[in-house]
Amino acid sequence: MAEPVIGIDLGTTYSAVGIVEAGFPILLADEGGERLTPSVVWFGSEGVKAGRAALREAPAGRLVRSAKRQMGVRFGEHVEGGLPLVGDTHGGVAFQTLEGPRTPVEVSSVLLGELKRIAEYRLEREVRKAVITVPAYFNNAQRESTKQAGEEAGLEVLRLVAEPTAAALAYGMNKLGESARVAVFDLGGGTFDVSILELRDGIFEVLATGGDTRLGGDDIDAVILDLVKQGAGMSGSALEDPEADGDRLIQEAERVKRELSTKDHVVFRVPFYDGAQSLEVEVSRVDLERGVEPLLSRMERICREVLVDAGMEPDEVGAVVMVGGSSRVPAVQKLAEAVFQREPDCSQHPDEAVALGASIQAGIIAGTWREVLLLDVTPLSLGIETLGGLMNVLIPRNTTIPCKVGEMFTNARDGQDSMRVRVLQGERELARDNWELGKFDLSFRSAPRGKARVGVQLSLDENGILEVLARDVEGTGEDVIVRIESAAVDVNEEAVEQMVEESVEHAFEDMNARVFTEAQLKAEELLPAVRVALVEIGSILSEEEQEEIRLAERAVEHALTGSEANVLKRAVERLDQATEALAARLVEKAIKEV
Amino acid sequence: MVTSSDHFEVLGMERKLDLSPETLRAHYDGRCQEAHPDAGGTAKGFDAVAEAYKALSSPARRLRHWLELFGIRVVEDGSLPPAVEERFGPVNALLQKASEIAERHREARSTLVRSLAEAEGISLQGRIVEARGELENAITAMVSGFKRFDESDPHEIREEAMELVRSLSFLERWEAQLRAAWAQAGCW
To answer: What is residue A588's predicted lDDT score, i.e. its pLDDT?
Structure first.
């Protein structure tokens, strides 16, 4: 029998593990018969506990929760919550535990180790290979961190697969003969993703994906806690009291959220939450729905953008598959129904579909599941910074992966021996508005300007992870794998979300900036050239021609001090025209002198 | 980068310009089942398949590639037929209008002004859909000439074909821009 490959859903609040066995995907249960493992870890002096054991044994307030939210996040850009966070040695964040700081990767690796253990317990054999799911909207740094966590847990990570894509596999596994376009609406504990896929003849092709890595069920729990605070007439910080048992408050908020899916009123009740006082507040569904409105409008916007990216009208979507625990909240379902104009499909188990899909993908790779092929996409555009601070998109978002793209670089000055290239991910036109994935230095042979050429190939592998290859075209012709100086922890999801939200809105402003920058580059090239040419052959021009050039020059210089793109562009065009004759004479002169 | 592979060959197809999206998709699916890394292929092999599919999906790129396969280099700059050129004005006006509405929406301080922008955006979306339809029709009309090209000697129709590459490139680009403008006019 071939070596087993397990599929893991590493969730923000719950995780699960499965495998394809006897031609069917199944989830593997722990000793207690539970298929879902809480994504919590306790670092105690006697040892480390994960999942249910951690819930049982950790003292109040010492659990590490929602580590996934901090994956690949830079210190200073993180969101507080749960255990206090500190900076780690690489600029990322770490959870402050009694046993010292623990990074999100370490915490995740403990969780993955626990899931590996459960699988080995059920399968009664060693497991060394896995497929792990990530939110579709995870960027390069977050994907790399997840892969690293798997490796630290002793698992070879054969593939990272997007969560909504995995859910689509679970949904579509019994519908292989059909052709359909399906939207997957995945509202997990900490992340939100929407993907539109086309299913045809065993091919599952992702057409477009979008999401928010900081929008999830946890945010709905937070709304409930706010309502409770208001209801109890407490000040804002009362529940953040260090004496308050945060774990119990969160658990109770989660219970209230679940019950409000079927009831109109539920009482939030935590006796002696800070050791002395008790909380008992009624929460109504109406209040909750009002409270989550801002969250819903963020989801709506993302859904609409994904539809546009897929080039589809809502009525072209054949099914809206709801997964993730919070997809069962009635207000969320109403939203999905309004956007896609059809009743959402709740046939999939909200907490298990992603793990089942991960298991199917594991089966595809292991060769135990042959009917299906998955074509996934990259969620974010990839590009490099160009001269002038613009983002030059090389791989647009929603490109099928794996994919690669080539770009030629040349030396801008005589004898220039190296060049720094910044790799960016994001949707904005100005380089600085996107995130820097990393940078690398290209070496040039010593050569006159424009003569040293290095070809660079950027590729995204089937996990959506970047690799850069450089080739000295004129010289050795050898390929060199370029090490990216990783800004691996430079991720600020809020900025991301904002970036994507604003990319459409700012198209006008960006266009202005682009026009200005381009005109500015042209002006900076033209002005010194005009002076040189005038000294050389200015005397053959008529007095009027020379006067016009001087006027045009002054107009450009003046426009450069302002910020009006069109003014600068027109001024540069005028100077361009005014110097046409000059340029022609220069050529004539050069020909005569040969 | 120089085109070295024959996209038609990569997808296991005849070198024919007259090609329905369904036929193209079916060949792509078939090749994916062999070339994708999960199906035992390599990233490199898959990349060639994906690139071929992308190139042949666009009529402009398909025609350009077809010409290149017959050794005809397509000149980038050249004149556009007036019938194509005169479409730019109306398209550009719609693009500008969409930007302007989106900006007004963003800058609005009152719900009333924001709603006015949204209403205007929605009506603009209708006009954008119409304009896209016209561009699509123009593209379809041009593509209907592909059948004749398939039956001709490529060198004899080269000038006509090159002009068509340019026309199609512009029409496809404007169509894509209108699609983006449609989203922008939605004021999301």
So the answer is: 66
A443-447 LR contacts (CB < 8 Å, sep 24+) = A443/A417, A443/A418, A443/A472, A444/A411, A444/A416, A444/A417, A444/A418, A444/A419, A445/A472, A445/A474, A445/A475, A446/A415, A446/A417, A447/A411, A447/A414, A447/A415, A447/A474
| Residues A434, A424 contacting (CB under 8 angstroms) | yes
CB A152 within 8 Å of CB A107? no
Gap from A456 CA to chain B (nearest CA, Å): 11
The total number of structural domains that make up chain B: 2
The pLDDT value given to residue A528: 79
- Per-residue pLDDT of B27-78, as tens digits, reads 999 999 999 988 888 888 999 999 999 999 999 999 999 999 999 988 777 7
pLDDT tens track for A204-248? 999 999 998 889 998 999 999 989 888 887 755 555 555 566 778
Q: Pick from A57-61, A80-84, A505-509 the range whose average pLDDT is largest.
A: A57-61
Closest by Cβ to A305, choosing from B1, B47, B188? B188
Q: Which CATH number fits domain A217-293: 3.40.50.1980, 3.90.640.10, 3.90.550.10, 3.40.50.720?
A: 3.90.640.10
* Residue A186: active-site member: yes
The secondary structure of A511-566, three-state, reads HHHHHHHHHHHHHHHHHHHHHHHHHHHHHHCCHHHHHHHHHHHHHHHHHHHCCCHH
Q: Any idea where the domains of chain A sit in the sequence?
A: 5-215+294-375, 217-293, 382-503, 507-593
Residues B100 and B146 in one domain: yes
B150 and B109 fall within a common domain? yes
The amino acid at residue A544 is E
The runs of H, that is alpha helices, within A265-341 are 285-291, 293-310, 330-340
Span B162-175, pLDDT tens digits: 999 999 999 999 99
From B41's Cα to the closest Cα of chain A, the distance in A is 11
Chain B: residue nearest A297 by CA? B188
CA A33/CA A337 separation, integer angstroms:
35
Q: Which residues of A touch B102 (CB under 8 A)?
A: 504-505, 507-508
Is position A580 annotated as part of the catalytic site?
no
CA atoms within 13 A on the CB side of B135: 27
**pTM of the model as a whole:** 0.76
Residue in chain B lying closest to A365 (CA): B38
Residue B65 lies in a domain: no
CATH number belonging to the domain at A382-503, selected among 3.40.50.790, 2.60.34.10, 3.60.15.10, 2.30.30.700: 2.60.34.10
Pairwise CA distance, residues A493 & A490, whole Å: 10
Q: Is A68 a catalytic residue?
A: yes
Q: How far apart are CA A385 and CA A519, in angstroms?
A: 17
- Name the one residue in this structure whose structure tokens are 């699509």: B136
What is the value of ipTM here, to two decimals?
Answer: 0.79
pLDDT tens string A567-594: 898 888 888 888 877 776 766 665 555 4
A510, A429 contact by CB (below 8 A): yes
Q: Chain A: nearest CA to B38, how far in angstroms? A: 6
Instruction: Please name the residues between 142 and 181 in chain B that touch chain A, using a CB distance below 8 Å.
Output: 179-180
Structural domain for B52, as ranges: 7-57
Rounded to whole angstroms, the Cα distance separating A560 from A571 reads 9
Question: Is A245 annotated in the active site?
Answer: no
Strands (E), A113-162: 129-134, 156-162
Three-state SS for A430? strand
Catalytic: which of A30, A49, A68, A245?
A: A68
Question: With an 8 Å Cβ cutoff, are A504 and B37 in contact?
Answer: no
Q: Is A279 helix (H, G, I), strand (E, B) or coil?
A: strand
Contact A311 B179 (CB under 8 A): yes
Q: What is the pLDDT of residue B4?
A: 62
DSSP B74: P
